[in-house]
Amino acid sequence: MIRNDAPVRWGLGFQDPATPVMEGIVNLHHEIMYVMIGVLCMVIYILMRIIYNYDYRRNREVRKEKRGALIEAIWTLTPTVILIIIAVPSYALLYAMEEEVSPGVTVKIIGHQWYWSYEYSDYGEEGISYDSYMIGEEELEEGDLRMLEVDNRMVLPIKTHIRLLLTSTDVIHSWAVPSLGVKCDTVPGRLSQVGVYIKREGVYYGQCSELCGMNHAYMPIVVEGVKVEGYKEWIKSKI
Amino acid sequence: MTNSSTSSSENTDFLYKPQKIPCFRQTMLYGLTGGLVLGALRFYRTRNPWKTTDVAVFGTLLFSSVSWVLCRYEYRSYREQLRKSFDLQQEKLLFDKHNETEKPNNSAIEDSYEKKT
Question: What is the pLDDT of residue B106?
Fold first, then answer.
């Protein structure tokens, strides 16, 4: 099965979700999209009907309606009910996203102009830290994605609660990976926290999402989700 | 990711595909069918095209809304059951693994028992 975990040209839809948060976001989008399309169809139809029926050439006599309690109640209560129907799953997802679970892995992400650096401080005496630069077009191999590949990927274990701590050293960046449902601004002088739980193996692509200067478009993010055994091997190789 | 060598006419990954949304097909089928049937019945009674159209449109919205709510409820229940069964399987795997690591080595006892018998 081929998964859509990277941007495609002229892409309009979501990438395939890899975390429960992103699955929730996609499901909520489906729910709200249905309500939106239903309301749109109803409004367009009523508008067309009114434009046609009350055209001055067909209705020369002006009627003055002074009472309309029922219709006023209907057009007040109906949008209220629709908004409640939208709000319930939306708030449920919002609070579910903020649920805190004791993490198994903590990774620090630091934004620079114009690259990312990752620190795994839980392992070894000095921890593991490295920079992640975009691979230029001339260095790409066959099958690589242009302006998305990096020299050092971020490796994370799947089916593990992960805590990401984000900050920046210069200007505001934003660490965003659509498949994981993560987008978090990295603000200099501030430490942001995001929780992630990757459900399947794969390579997930993202890009900086806050304008940060000349090469803002050239600092992609690549996260490689591997099994716990593979993650341990990778950690051992890095220490 | 799709193969970059496919032609643009075959590569439609960029399009938004509503048919992939769970319950979309069922909702559209029930909504359109219900609206058409109601509209046809209204036209049969009144022979008024505008009233027919009103009933058909609002009937479509009503039937599709009901179908959507019911189908999404079933979809959520199914997903919840899937998640619970997955969690149970994970717990069972962990329990079995824990029991295997704590199991004593009874090979010497088994050998002596076999010798006796």
Answer: 53
Q: How far apart are CA A99 and CA A19, in angstroms?
A: 14
Structure tokens at A132: 């992640």
Among B1, B6, B25, B84, most A C-beta atoms within 10 A, so best to mutate, is: B1
Other C-beta atoms lying within 10 Å of the C-beta of residue A70:
8
Structure tokens at A169: 């050293």
Q: How far is CA A24 from CA A17, A27, A31, A74, A82, in A?
A: 9, 5, 11, 32, 20
Hey, where are the domains in chain A? 20-60+67-98, 105-238
CATH 3.40.50.620 fits A20-60+67-98, yes or no: no
What ipTM was assigned to the predicted interfaces of this complex? 0.75
Tokens matching residue A222: 């690549």
Which domain does B55 fall in, by range? 2-116
A208 CB near a chain B CB, below 8 Å?
Answer: no
Cβ within 8 Å, pair B14-A38: no
Distance CA A32, CA B31 (A): 18
Domain count, chain B: 1
pLDDT digits (tens, 9 = 90+) for A173-231: 999 999 999 999 999 999 999 999 999 999 999 999 999 999 999 999 999 999 999 99
CB pairs under 8 A between A and B: 39
A23 neighbors B22 (Cβ within 8 angstroms): no
How close, in Å, is residue A90 to chain B by CA atoms?
15
- C-alpha–C-alpha distance, residues A226 and B25, integer Å: 35
CATH fold group of domain A105-238: Immunoglobulin-like (2.60.40)
